[in-house]
């Protein structure tokens, strides 16, 4: 389901956001393979998941063998790269505002309860609570902020879009319209392509420090960005403990490749050759489309794309 034009301006939220957005899907994994294609599309619609997600890419010159291998990893090997936040173009990636919602005896009780949830015995939990932390909760906040910096490099992220006709996305992520865009259908591989919608807000997400879930503290920060980025309508695969790794997806999930308005003739030939190789390897060949300029408006036209 596309969220084009919507900008979320509600109050910051953190607790359970990642869990709630994924739990419906995770519960469905066991049944997913038993559904036919139509039933899968219906289920995704009910869950609010877009039927198609898009990955924009540039095409490095033929002299850049490493860059070309990355293109072929996607188009021939069915692999998406999960990057770390530090490699993204937004320096605010992963920022979070920590708060401690308790004071005094309530804070001590909450800390003891959390340690017990982690498996410590009651006596050990009491001993682990530091009096200095209870007296000065800002100590907990400072430690949490320091820990969040270390967490940044333990999260793998793959950014995807919902709009294959965005001039800005083509300009920013497909080498100024000289690259390509891949269409992926989550219904063909829900496990690999399980993505969450990015929320746009002026405020950092708030994490209740050690009193929230692991997802709240480590994953939620990567599902919110500034309102300035709302035009991207981004969805993300966010994977804990999968930084700088590939994630494989079902070959059937790639249904189309769109060439940019400025993709060169040589690069078009290169992509078409990869599509033929894909057909030989997997027996399927994504449809190749050409992005064009509208004759009447400042719009990109991708004719025939469903």
SS field, number of helical segments: 11
The computed structural class is alpha/beta
Given the C-alpha coordinates, what overall shape results? elongated
Largest sheet: 4 strands, mixed
The H-and-E topology, N to C, reads as HHHEHEEHHHHEHEEEEHEEEEHEEE
State the total count of DSSP E strands. Answer: 15
**Mean pLDDT rating:** 83
Low-confidence stretches: 1-21
Proportion in helices: 25-40%
- Based on CA atoms alone, the radius of gyration comes out at 22 Å
Report strand order across the widest sheet: 1-5-12-13
Distance between the termini: 14 Å
Strand content: 15-25%
Helix-strand layout with pairing:
Blueprint (H helix, E strand, L loop, with lengths): L16 H10 L2 H4 L4 H11 L5 E5 L7 H11 L3 E4 L14 E2 L5 H14 L4 H7 L2 H5 L2 H14 L3 E6 L6 H7 L6 E5 L11 E2 L1 E2 L5 E2 L6 H5 L5 E2 L9 E6 L4 E4 L5 E6 L5 H18 L4 E4 L1 E2 L6 E2 L5
Parallel strand pairs: 3-8, 7-9, 12-13
Antiparallel strand pairs: 1-5, 2-11, 4-10, 5-12, 6-10, 14-15
